[in-house]
Amino acid sequence: MARLLLVEDDETIGQALSTSLTAHGHSVSWAPTGNGALRESRLGSFDLILLDLGLPDLDGVAVCRELRTTQADTVIVMLTARDEEMDVIIGLEAGADDYLTKPVRLAELHARLRAHLRRGESITRPDTTEPTQLGDLVVDTSSRRVTLAGADVPLRAKEFELLARLAAQPGVAVSRDTLMSDVWDEHWFGSTKTLDVHVAALRRRFSDAGDGALVPTIVTLRGHGYRLDVPPSA
Ligand code: CA
């Protein structure tokens, strides 16, 4: 059972989602406004937040950013209308992990939730105890810790798993399908834009390392996927 916060102002949709989530064994708190969601988030911690972006009182992306400050380890999945494409990208950058487009299909919703809630179980090399060192970057899957030139790199759950997956095979091209299936879910049937957003986030973390650090490069392979290249002088 997971503790879920459902943020949805539409009575019909909210009721349908709440009923279905409860039937799947989750404990659901339902907030119909952005302010209500922020209040709930200060009262308790949640495993996952389903956040409608179109809220009556506050901007959904701003709510997302605020929720992220109090619920650091919570998975945030945005619910969006098709014409909110820009909001999705901004929302993912504001700390959301994923999004679903309305009308939400319940089978897809539950598949996504399963994928997110099993996070931490999909580490690529669970039996590896030795950290992987690539230049100044060290990825330790046993402690789920990443350091860059000795400094801790704070990563979100999926950012870590994506990096661990790429670092498991440095210099090897990994297809989008493989990354989606290994890091997210084998039955993923949503957009894979979330992959690109997570890659962009990792690149930003690497660029924070500053000049002189030997940082791996995540190379985009058009029409295929990504490859993690070790720094040239490493
Ligand atoms: Ca709405």
How large a portion of the residues is in β-strands, by DSSP E?
A: 15-25%
CATH superfamily of the largest domain: Response regulator
Give the tally of structural domains. 2
Q: Which range best describes the helical content: under 10%, 10-25%, 25-40%, 40-55%, 55-70% or over 70%?
A: 25-40%
Instruction: Report the bound ligands by name, code or SMILES.
Output: calcium ion
Give structural attributes.
single chain, 234 residues, alpha/beta, Arc Repressor Mutant, subunit A, 5-stranded parallel beta sheet, binds calcium ion
Provide a descriptive summary of the structure in words:
The structure is a single chain. By secondary structure, the protein is an alpha/beta fold. The protein has 2 domains: 120 residues, Rossmann fold (3-Layer(aba) Sandwich), CATH 3.40.50.2300; 98 residues, Orthogonal Bundle (Arc Repressor Mutant, subunit A). 38% of the residues lie in helices and 21% in strands. The strands form 3 sheets. The chain has a 5-stranded parallel sheet, with helices on both faces. Strands 6-7-8-9 form a 4-stranded antiparallel sheet, covered by helices on one side. Strands 10-12-11 form a 3-stranded antiparallel sheet. It is elongated and about 60 Å long. It starts with a strand and ends in a 5-residue tail after the last strand. The site of calcium ion has 5 residues, from loops.
